[in-house]
Specification:
Layout: H1 19-38, H2 44-69, H3 76-109, H4 132-155, H5 159-185, H6 195-202
Length: 203
């Protein structure tokens, strides 16, 4: 006899979850802590918020894996919608950065009188593209190859290769972030003040 409570459709109706609430509160605390830290405050609020966000990631991913692997909730229809969701997310990120690159190229190709009619604006000392930016570009490209290696290992059931590829990718991502932070801290220009700094740090 069929289970009367068994779903008669291919969609996953998610059970109530605490993670959106915990994640949003943690992100709020992290944002407030970041603002306090940038204004000379102690980093503890920022660290607490960051820990909460990381805890949310782990807990939410654990639940998603359980729903997929143990509960069988990720039907082919649900998996297709996951792909659509990722595509829309990537498309939104592309459009976000297109706006900033558009602003950068518009200001650089057609500099107006407010920035002295020249690009970069007067008083801006640009970064040497053959130093840290080149190193970081190579690190970024290398991390793309290691995550591709991990993806291929996953497709072929090679768990050792998957772990190595992901560990290398995470390490390269962390190194990239450290070098990027160092570069930003030692830049001679800031986010505020002119369009060069604003578009540089955002794009």
């Amino acid at each position: 006899m069929a289970d009367a409570h068994a779903p008669q459709h291919d969609y996953h109706l998610v059970d109530p979850s605490p993670w959106p609430f915990i994640g949003s509160i943690s992100a709020f605390i992290m944002a407030i802590g970041g603002i306090m830290f940038m204004h000379g405050g102690a980093p503890w609020v920022l660290l607490i918020g960051t820990a909460g966000v990381l805890y949310t990631f782990v807990g939410w991913w654990r639940d998603v894996i359980k729903e997929a692997e143990h509960d069988g909730q990720h039907t082919p229809v649900v998996q297709l919608h996951h792909r659509y969701g990722m595509f829309l997310f990537i498309a939104s990120e592309v459009m976000f950065f297109v706006a900033w690159f558009w602003a950068f190229f518009n200001a650089s190709i057609f500099p107006d009188a407010s920035i002295g009619g020249v690009w970069p604006p007067e008083g801006i000392e640009t970064l040497d593209p053959w130093h840290l930016p080149l190193i970081n570009t190579l690190i970024l490209l290398t991390s793309g190859t290691t995550v591709t290696w991990a993806h291929h290992a996953l497709q072929h059931g090679d768990r050792v290769g998957l772990k190595r590829g992901l560990i290398l990718t995470i390490a390269l991502g962390a190194l990239f972030s450290v070098i990027q932070a160092y570069e930003y801290m030692h830049a001679t220009f800031e986010f505020a003040g002119n369009i060069y700094g604003a578009t540089f740090f955002m794009a």
